[in-house]
Design goal:
By secondary structure, this protein is α/β, with parallel strands linked by helices. It has a nine-stranded parallel sheet. Strand 2, helix 2 and strand 3 form a beta-alpha-beta unit. Helix 1 runs parallel beside helix 2 and helix 1 crosses helix 11. The model has no long low-confidence stretch (mean pLDDT 94).
Length: 278
């Protein structure tokens, strides 16, 4: 009998970046997801901003939908650490995250000064304790912090965590050996798919990352092996934006497509883990 803990599966905000969090909670529930990631701070000037600060109508609406559906919020995002003083921004994000019941805040390292970046992350980690929020550093293939080893080194110095995203892990040439020493640092694994060979330009990498990823299991990433490298209870968030396919399927149709696809990947990963245990 399989006694491993059930893996929680979430729907990342980027998969439906134009869907406000209250509606995202309902869609996630209808598609069978356990949690969502909430974008409490926009990444680009053209992105729709969602005001989830304590006391706002949107926060109240989101919390009501969460109570109605049982869907939770596990992570909030997104802050690009660029070396400037961003403490006010992350404190606001942490306040929103605490109100939503989140446990992590996703950041990326755009500051090439690694010593300063480590200090920034340490300050964030200290601030986060008061909110029950841990910063999670995501290596991104087109940013200065792009690899698992670089992110893990910074996380160990700062006392924070890291996020492993299947796209960026593949694009920076991640290996199982790199993961082996960092599993305890990873509270969340993000799933998507794509071709083995990525775009050659930074612009192409950005476009792929933000607006055109592949459905898990339909591309050339070895997702089952990636998932199987983590403990069975590690939560998985499906972060698969596709402007084209959202327009084709509709928001709920796209969410259901992603849930069915991710379930198949997770079953394949479970099979690998069980085979390895024999």
């Amino acid at each position: 009998m399989n006694t491993s803990p059930r893996r929680q599966v979430g729907l990342a905000q980027l998969s439906l970046v134009g869907t406000a969090p209250p509606a995202l909670v309902v869609i996630a529930a209808e598609a069978g997801f356990d949690f969502i990631g909430a974008r409490v701070r926009p990444v680009t000037p053209t992105e729709r901003a969602y005001d989830l600060q304590p006391g706002t109508p949107m926060l109240k609406d989101t919390l009501a939908r969460m109570r109605d559906t049982g869907v939770t919020v596990k992570d909030v995002e997104f802050l690009l650490l660029d070396g400037s003083d961003q403490r006010e921004a992350w404190l606001r994000m942490m306040a929103a995250g605490q109100a939503l019941g989140a446990s992590s805040l996703t950041v990326a390292g755009a500051d090439a000064d690694t010593s300063r970046l480590a200090d920034t992350l340490a300050r964030m980690t200290e601030d986060g304790r008061g909110f029950g929020i841990v910063p999670t550093l995501e290596p991104i293939s087109y940013q200065p912090v792009r690899s698992i080893p670089a992110a893990a080194e910074l996380a160990h110095k700062a006392g924070c965590k890291i996020v492993v995203d299947a796209l960026h892990f593949t694009r920076f040439g991640g290996t199982p050996e790199q993961l082996a020493g960092s599993l305890e640092l990873v509270p969340l694994l993000q799933l998507c798919d794509g071709p083995a060979a990525g775009p050659v330009s930074r612009e192409g990498l950005v476009t792929e990352s933000r607006s055109e990823r592949g459905v898990p299991g339909e591309g050339e990433f070895d997702l089952a092996a990636l998932v199987a490298a983590f403990p069975a209870g590690t939560p998985v968030s499906v972060e698969t934006p596709s402007d084209r396919r959202v327009s084709q399927h509709g928001e709920l149709g796209w969410a259901r497509t992603l849930k069915a696809a991710s379930d198949a990947v997770l079953q394949a990963a479970d099979n690998l883990q069980e085979a390895g245990a024999k």
